[in-house]
Amino acid sequence: MPVNLTAPVASSLHPVAGVRIGVAEAGVRKANRKDLTVFLLDEGASVGGVFTSNRFCAAPVQICRERLDAGAAVRAIVVNTGNANAGTGEDGLARARQTCEALAAQLGLQPDQVLPFSTGVIMEPLPVDRIVAGLPAAITDAQPAHWARAAEGIMTTDTVPKAASAKAMVGGVEVTITGISKGAGMIRPNMATMLGFLATDAKVDQAVMKQLAFELAEGSFNRVTIDGDTSTNDSFIVIATNKAANAPVTALDSADGQALKEALMGVARQLAQAIVRDGEGATKFITVQVEGGKTAAECRQVAYAIAHSPLVKTAFFASDPNLGRILAAVGYAGIDDLDQTRIDLYLDDVHVAVNGGRNPSYREEDGQRVMKQAEITVRVNLGRGSASDTVWTCDLSHDYVSINADYRS
Amino acid sequence: MPVNLTAPVASSLHPVAGVRIGVAEAGVRKANRKDLTVFLLDEGASVGGVFTSNRFCAAPVQICRERLDAGAAVRAIVVNTGNANAGTGEDGLARARQTCEALAAQLGLQPDQVLPFSTGVIMEPLPVDRIVAGLPAAITDAQPAHWARAAEGIMTTDTVPKAASAKAMVGGVEVTITGISKGAGMIRPNMATMLGFLATDAKVDQAVMKQLAFELAEGSFNRVTIDGDTSTNDSFIVIATNKAANAPVTALDSADGQALKEALMGVARQLAQAIVRDGEGATKFITVQVEGGKTAAECRQVAYAIAHSPLVKTAFFASDPNLGRILAAVGYAGIDDLDQTRIDLYLDDVHVAVNGGRNPSYREEDGQRVMKQAEITVRVNLGRGSASDTVWTCDLSHDYVSINADYRS
């Protein structure tokens, strides 16, 4: 059961001027399943992306990177589920290109104006014929109001579609932001990938889009972890359709740039956190906040050590305030000159460890009370500086093992 | 159920001249349990040790490091289970010292000739009175033939005692090697630590002992992983009693040094692998062998990425030849210039992936056959050099979650 996460209400997702979305059933892997989604962008959109750091990256990721780096004027995005087109070599690249060519031909575009995304089983050939055959239906279906449909269309083994939407003021003008994401742990049996698509009608210079996507990912999708596995297909795309009346954002550190980024970040975080809330077997949503570090990077390092520790994660599952496991994870996070006698640890408002030892006033029942909650904040103070960082994760339950140990069906 | 691991037969463990071992029931945490073990060494033993890299290291670890670094003439080792004396600050150091002082007084030694070891619950005060009260019985019990008893005496939640023994020729003289270990995953509920004690009667110069312990750990205890968690108390001690008639080993790269190291390594590996075989919830013993790297370090990095991946580990539990998960782990291991088109993957003798893609001649039933075995070798060739390294691990099962999610009892 996802942790405090329900399907989005379609009417709560604001359409973004300049974006139409269509979904179809192409039978990529299974019949009668929405498995093909297209985003059609009006001319003039600015687009940025961030992709998996996995060296074994999928064919569509390679093509997206190449096209965005070359400054392609993106007009369409095509997403299939059921097949990740990863570990498929040259043939996989050719098939991803074929998909783009087919969509481009039907829309009167150049192939490099189409970005492809795939998610599903690894190391099997992409059934490009079935995908191409499904494109006309997806194009016909395209509507600005279809965000909730798209959130469903990109699901693989997610149990809940994930979408979020907001309005914000940028330079005195109201802009709209809507996005969707998918992912539920890194991989259910053979099903990979976290995908995120975020669009705004704000005017944003193409020149800042790559950096914008990077900074947004750093504060959202790059701060969530289920099991520490990094998929071959992870992608996050940010679109600014330039339809709103704001003065174009040309620098992220301008007042307008900051206002826009903050608003986008709010939605990106909801989308990223939704993935954790729907994490494989998750029963708890955990915020790991590390402060008092010399650098944000070392805080992150400690936060990930805690968030990845199977022992910490099983303790959360068991609602066991097992302080030793958290402190041990802090200790092995890799900060060579860490002084254990300066570490403080809190579970929500409960101060459990002080100067690296048990807080004399800590009572087990207080820790127990917090550990029983569905949402918990672990706060660690390293006592060596003023930097901080935060990571979101979930617990490790029996269901995680069941889900991932099921034989591929 | 441990994987191909049974309790040692006491008579198969050769006594090591110059070492007597005694075990007692001190009631550290629970009554009627062998929880206190002493090793008594004749005068003139050479001793080296390697300890946890966890910055949150336990009080006894700090004291052992200090004494070995100061060149103490070690004559006794005291090990308690039931309490790790970790996260206990200055008070914990004082209690560990008290234990050593009490044992030293009873044996007519200086306190710094005693090395203390503790394993068990974290962040609770060491019950030093009960330990001290148990020492006379442990001393009275001391016999050269008590290795199997000691293997039991240092167990916490291990399901099987772990010991190994061998004879070898060093410089034309037969020497004896016997050792014990404990650990079963990093931590069962609150129970931490891997401990290893290895003794030989060979003559070895004290000057090479630290390096010897380091090199042995690098080839054994530092190459096993259950869940990637590093305990606060991990310790590995090597003792050479200097009772044998061999010419003293004064350099590890001499012929005698190499012969001795190889023999010690064989026993150390058995002890380290026994910990994986008895890993929490383990149903499979996995050897991850990475070759074709530029350096051994990068091979190790890839091997650990595979060995720590919850997705890979659950696939082993399910006997699912899920190649994508292994290749994905290779891809995110952190080698920035890795070329995915050069990766080959084998499961035992089955060549599953070639040049980063599925081997055309690979049949799922062959992978399936290997995955069903209790012992499996995963071999990855990175195709970029001639270095290699190996790591041993186990699968991730329902029982791992059950064991670690049980509330501390």
TrEMBL record, chains A, B:
The entry's active site is 193
**Pfam families noted in UniProt:** ArgJ
Q: Give the catalysed reaction(s), semicolon-separated.
A: L-glutamate + acetyl-CoA = N-acetyl-L-glutamate + CoA + H(+); N(2)-acetyl-L-ornithine + L-glutamate = N-acetyl-L-glutamate + L-ornithine
Cite the InterPro entries for this sequence.
Answer: Arg_biosynth_ArgJ, ArgJ-like_dom_sf, ArgJ_beta_C
Output one GO MF annotation. Answer: L-glutamate N-acetyltransferase activity, acting on acetyl-L-ornithine as donor
Highest taxon, organism lineage: Bacteria
Which keywords does UniProt give here?
Acyltransferase, Amino-acid biosynthesis, Arginine biosynthesis, Autocatalytic cleavage, Cytoplasm, Multifunctional enzyme, Transferase
Please list the residues that bind substrate: 156, 182, 193, 280, 404, 409
Provide the assembly information.
Answer: Heterotetramer of two alpha and two beta chains.
Listed PANTHER family = ARGININE BIOSYNTHESIS BIFUNCTIONAL PROTEIN ARGJ, ARGININE BIOSYNTHESIS BIFUNCTIONAL PROTEIN ARGJ, MITOCHONDRIAL
- This chain belongs to the protein called Arginine biosynthesis bifunctional protein ArgJ
> Major location, coarse class?
cytoplasm
Q: Which GO terms describe its biological process?
A: L-arginine biosynthetic process; ornithine biosynthetic process
Q: Where in the cell is it found?
A: Cytoplasm
Where is the site Cleavage? 192-193
Give the protein's function: Catalyzes two activities which are involved in the cyclic version of arginine biosynthesis: the synthesis of N-acetylglutamate from glutamate and acetyl-CoA as the acetyl donor, and of ornithine by transacetylation between N(2)-acetylornithine and glutamate.
